[in-house]
Design a protein that fits this description.
Blueprint lengths: L1 E4 L14 H9 L3 E5 L10 H7 L2 E3 L2 H7 L2 E3 L17 E4 L7 H9 L3 E4 L14 H18 L21 E5 L3 H13 L2 E6 L2 H11 L3 E5 L2 H8 L4 E4 L25 E4 L20 E4 L2 E4 L9 H22 L1 H7 L1 H6 E4 L2 E2 L2 H7 L11
Parallel strand pairs: 1-2, 1-4, 2-3, 4-5, 5-6, 7-8, 7-10, 8-9, 10-11, 11-13
Antiparallel strand pairs: 6-14, 12-13, 14-15
Helix pairs in contact: 1-2, 5-6, 9-10
Length: 370
């Protein structure tokens, strides 16, 4: 199979879909890899490293898109890339279609076979291709939140850990999944007061066993969320429904009750966000203030640390990509329910139930189509 990888063009996105080691793996399996020149520079990988690994370099992205059977990316295609879609192309990347109807319609019109990292689900319900970026985003959320609590960024001017004789910051984490747990780990490590909310009592018990007296666990409901937000200095939104739109737990009516200069980091923004007041921002212009609360809603947070993010991501995505390339998507779906769970669009049909529900579109089971 002809495998392609192009340079990411989303704002301040420096990750790349394939590392030189990934190229070696595809080439060793008998495939041909085409890389756009300069695609890996932002993550610290040179063109020479890709050539040494066995890739063919092409000077522009359009030539790569036209030539390949499967395109491996990091972020969803932007509108200027839609004309490169063609019937039967396998697109293997993050898609987040529940928050992006325009892209979904373009994939359907182009009859693209789109496999989304974020919906690939193992039998134990884990999300292996989403997990590494969730780990990074969770850890970054505290790092970024601590920065924007500084007065010069509009924050209230509080040090997350405090010092002897001063109050520590109150950190509230909405959602105890992978993002929430990693945010909790960093916040606890920095010495903040941490409260984490989740709808699952089992998950709260796991977090309590893990962090003990260092955190407060609460069941996530409107009353508890509103109560803890009044004293919060930093709020992390880390709610996820695989493939679906994120529920709006952080409501606009809570904003006037919060501390002026408190910070809200909406890690769920790429799935629509868990805040009613959330809107997508970029690394160039990451924050805005609404009702006195600083909102950080960057849609590609891990792109800020591309070397770490690229290696972590491709460690997870490579084995599924190799399976698709070896058998073709149709046989891979027949052989693996895990790969089947990743297919969001297939030759003009929408094949992810949560995405279909988000847009009120007709859903077709991928197994009926292959």
């Amino acid at each position: 199979m002809k495998i392609g990888c192009v340079k990411e063009i989303k704002n301040n996105e420096f990750r790349v879909g394939l590392t030189p080691d990934n190229v070696k793996a595809y080439v060793a399996a008998g495939h041909h890899v085409y890389m756009e020149s300069g695609a890996g520079i932002g993550s610290g990988f040179t063109d020479n490293e890709y050539v040494d690994a066995g890739a063919s370099l092409l000077d522009n992205a359009a030539d790569v898109w036209k030539l390949v059977d499967m395109m491996v990316k990091v972020k969803e295609p932007l509108e200027c890339e839609y004309p490169f879609f063609h019937d039967g192309l396998i697109l293997y990347t993050y898609l987040h279609l529940a928050a992006d109807k325009q892209q979904m319609d373009a994939l359907l019109a182009g009859k693209v076979k789109a496999v989304a990292y974020e919906t690939i689900q193992e039998a134990d319900r884990s999300l292996p291709c989403l997990a590494p970026m969730s780990q990074i985003a969770g850890r970054l959320s505290i790092q970024e939140g601590a920065k924007y609590l500084e007065k010069r960024f509009g924050g209230e001017g509080i040090l997350l850990a405090g010092v002897p004789g001063t109050p520590k910051a109150n950190v509230v984490i909405l959602g105890g999944g992978t993002v929430g747990m990693n945010a909790c780990k960093i916040a606890v490590g920095m010495g903040a007061n941490v409260t984490i909310l989740d709808i699952s009592l089992k998950r709260l018990e796991e977090l309590d066993n893990l962090f003990g007296a260092h955190i407060q666990t609460l069941v996530s409901n409107d009353s508890n969320v509103e109560r803890v937000l009044k004293d919060a200095d930093l709020v992390i939104g880390s709610v996820l429904i695989p493939g679906g739109s994120t529920p709006k737990l952080f409501k606009k009516k809570y904003l006037p009750e919060m501390k002026p200069g408190a910070v809200f980091v909406d890690v769920a923004i790429d799935q629509g966000g868990c805040g009613e007041s959330s809107r997508v921002t970029t690394h160039d212009d990451p924050v805005y203030v609404e009702d006195g609360v600083v909102h950080y809603c960057v849609g590609n947070m891990p792109g800020a640390v591309p070397r770490t993010s690229t290696i972590a991501l491709t460690n997870a995505t490579l084995r599924y990509g190799l399976a698709i390339a070896k058998a073709g998507l149709e046989e891979a779906v027949k052989n693996s329910d895990v790969i089947a769970s990743g297919v969001n669009t297939y030759l003009g049909k929408l094949t992810n139930k949560n995405v279909a529900l988000a847009h009120n579109y007709e859903y077709t089971d991928i197994r009926e189509l292959v």
